[in-house]
Design brief:
Blueprint (H helix, E strand, L loop, with lengths): L14 H20 L2 H12 L3 H26 L4 H19 L5 H16 L1 H13 L4 H30 L1 H20 L11 H5 L5 H5 L2 H30 L4 H29 L1 H18 L6 H30 L4 H30 L3 H30 L5
Length: 408
């Protein structure tokens, strides 16, 4: 079922599915390359002599910049066509990566990756999750799942690809090729995008939706923000440091990168599968399962496992965070509606980026002080447990909030 009266079919295919496929490509390209940061980590640290906390710094700065600029991207997504937003974001991201191929020091790393790449990346989550729910209603979870599966597909493809390119041509050439590719493809994909047509009869329901300011006045909004801060911290520990941890205990670089690939595969499959399941099982139970699975993996990683253990960790964690990444925006849309979803998700995403900015350097700091990642994985598992408790509180408030929505 669509929110659109004008179906805009293309050869009998509802255009919402074209939008979904285009957003899959956007997410695949932007997030697959961004989350390959871990395979560049040791080559950069070795060439420049940086410690792990210092090398993690630009990644953390990029999280904060993405969060701040994501607010603007979300507000724009409520007002203008996504075509221009995604196209400009792709060009800015491409420039940042190409400049990184010529960097000579840590300050440039912070500027090019932490600011420029982050500025372009700021459109790559907020815009898809704001646009897609406006094209779908009953199958919203499935559509979001397909689009967000791009994160997992990208994690599956790009880390091993970049590992091979770095080994053959060095990290500078790899960053240059990355920039050229992301610039060309993102602009081409953006040409498929258009805003969702909404018939007048749908405006009656949309008039009940929460504006950004009304949403921010509710306890549910701040609970959602707190949950997103917490779940982002362990994710960045895994994305940035799992390869380092695996190689530290004797796993080869190629095998360690494949653990990220396994995480990406699970992420991709779970976003589609869990998105569809949540349409039937319900958001609450589905989200509990996703968060609990991530907590178990983090605590299990306190023990150093062999190659197959790291593959299993990547697979299970990918299922948990991939599925959770689909259910969360569904919960937000269910609580506040879709009319102003871009602005609401934009502000909430800043909370996620704050947590993400903290996760990687925290793990690096713990390692630099203890020469071990055990403490980092313990903290990550406990944080995920706290997030699960907050979800329970949120769903108790959700029913109260719906009762307060005035009739149009």
């Amino acid at each position: 079922m669509s929110l659109s009266g004008n179906q805009r079919d293309v050869g009998g295919l509802y255009y919402g599915w074209v939008i979904t496929f285009a957003m899959f490509l956007v997410v695949f390209l932007f997030w697959g390359t961004f989350y390959s940061f871990g395979v560049f980590f040791k080559p950069l640290a070795a060439d420049f002599g940086w410690g792990r906390a210092a090398t993690s710094g630009p990644f953390s700065l990029s999280m904060l910049v993405q969060g701040l600029m994501g607010i603007g991207a979300g507000l724009l997504a409520d007002r203008v066509s996504p075509r221009g937003i995604i196209g400009v974001g792709g060009i800015v991201t491409a420039i940042g990566y190409m400049l990184m191929s010529r960097m000579t020091g840590l300050l440039e790393f912070y500027l090019y990756f932490g600011v420029l790449v982050a500025a372009g990346m700021s459109v790559s989550y907020v815009v898809p999750v704001a646009v897609i729910p406006r094209w779908f209603e009953a199958r919203r979870g499935l559509a979001l799942g397909i689009a967000m599966a791009g994160v997992g597909a990208g994690n599956m493809v790009f880390p091993p690809l970049f590992t091979q390119l770095i080994g053959a041509h060095g990290w500078r050439t790899t960053y240059l090729l990355l920039g050229i590719g992301i610039g060309v493809v993102s602009v081409a994909v953006s040409l498929l995008l258009r805003p969702a047509p909404i018939p007048e009869e749908a405006m009656v329901g949309l008039s009940r939706d929460f504006s950004l300011m009304r949403a921010m006045a509710t306890p549910a909004f701040w609970l959602l923000g707190s949950i997103w801060i917490l779940v982002a911290i362990p994710l960045q520990i895994m994305v940035v440091h799992l390869v380092n941890y695996a190689t530290d205990v004797g796993v080869t670089a190629t095998a360690a990168a494949f653990a990220l690939t396994m995480m990406g595969l699970a992420n991709m499959v779970s976003r589609i599968g869990v998105g569809s399941v949540s349409d039937r099982l319900g958001d609450k139970l589905t989200y509990y399962i996703c968060l609990g699975l991530q907590a178990i993996v983090l605590l299990a990683l306190m023990r150093a496992w062999g190659v197959m253990g790291f593959y299993a960790a990547g697979l299970l964690f990918g299922i948990g965070y991939g599925g959770g990444g689909v259910v969360y925006p569904k919960i937000v849309a269910g609580v506040f509606g879709v009319r102003f979803l871009g602005g609401i998700i934009g502000v909430l995403s800043f909370a996620w980026y704050v947590g993400a900015a903290f996760g990687a350097p925290m793990a690096g700091f713990i390692f630099d002080r203890t020469s071990s990642y055990q403490g980092a994985f313990l903290v990550g598992g406990l944080i995920m447990a706290v997030a699960t408790v907050l979800v329970s509180v949120l769903f108790r408030l959700r029913h109260t909030l719906k009762a307060q929505v005035p009739a149009p």
